[in-house]
Write a structure and sequence with these properties.
The protein contains 8 helices and no strands.
Amino acid sequence: MADAGSDSSGPAPAYAWIILTLLGMVLALSAVYILSTGMDPSDFEGATALEWDTFNRSYPEVGIYLMRLERLTGAVMLGFALFAAMVSYGPFRRGNRWAWATLWIVPLALGLVTGVFLTHGAGELGGFYGGLAVLVVLMLVLPYRAFFPR
């Protein structure tokens, strides 16, 4: 155990930092896919019942705007995922309490994403991100005593 003035209590359990780091990397890969491909036309068609090609020909400026929003979403997601992976692999693994507290933003963000998907008719994606949020909460709650020993 570290001294009273330290922010570190000792290393985090391997299962927690490994799973959190891998989760961050998987989310980063997903973000790279979104960033590189933009919007999937089938997602647009499923949400609007309009054919993407027809819509895009009729409203090209709106099509460009929607693709830009999708790619910006990928860019923000990439930054967030890499941040979570780096904090998990470094400071969280070493047992820094600030990293444990900071990583609580991950299930909060995943919960918000879950809510957006569930309220906008994408239940399967909502369930996926909700499951990830629960996994992150478990990886933060289970090693609680490693970060805050009695």
